[in-house]
User: What shape does this take?
Amino acid sequence: MQRTQGRCPECGESVIVEVTEGEPGKVMEHGCEARACEYPDCSVIALKEEMVQFAGGEWYCLGHGLLPDVVAKGEARERRKT
Ligand SMILES: [Zn+2]
Ligand SMILES: [Zn+2]
Assistant: This one.
């Protein structure tokens, strides 16, 4: 296994990447600023500023975070907690 300087495919930071022969490189922990949308089957990964975070800690992309059913779910969960 080898460590090399690379770039996080999600947030674009320069990070340490562990490279093992025959396997895809593994990006090391780096306080990634990118978040993945939790909407089923959505594969959007973007920086926090381009995402919507709900009270429960979930992140959604702008397209899904503003959907009425997603917003309602987020609010319902928040209400239950308090
Ligand atoms: Zn990152
Ligand atoms: Zn999404």
About this structure: Residues 68-81 form the longest helix (14 residues). The chain has a mean pLDDT of 91. Residues 8, 10-11, 13, 30, 32, 34 surround zinc ion (ligand 1) (CB under 6 Å).
